[in-house]
Amino acid sequence: MGISRELLIGSSASQYERTALWAEEIHEQFTDIHHGLIWTSNLCDPDDAMLFFGDRVDAADFEIVAVREGTDGSFIRDARKAGRQAGIRIAL
Description:
- The structure is a single chain.
- By secondary structure, this protein is α+β, with helices and mostly antiparallel strands.
- The chain has one domain.
- Helices cover 34% and strands 11% of the residues.
- It contains 3 helices and 2 strands, in the order ααββα.
- A two-stranded antiparallel ribbon has the order 1-2.
- Strand 1 (36-40) and strand 2 (48-52) form a beta hairpin.
């Protein structure tokens, strides 16, 4: 589509709205992509992130396969750590 990997995912958080436009464009141009996209982010590279197109998937397409209990506080610690890595502050 004429954009380098660095320009697409190497941008700063202030550019995330612009990078989201690429997902919208892919959604509009490629109707044969039935569910969504798998990509990585600048902060979490090389881990994958999944973006599902809400008009092409339904809640019934998903199944809960595991639940994590957080009674020992480890879930909150891990969620805050993931938030910090993504530049998000989680306050409870």
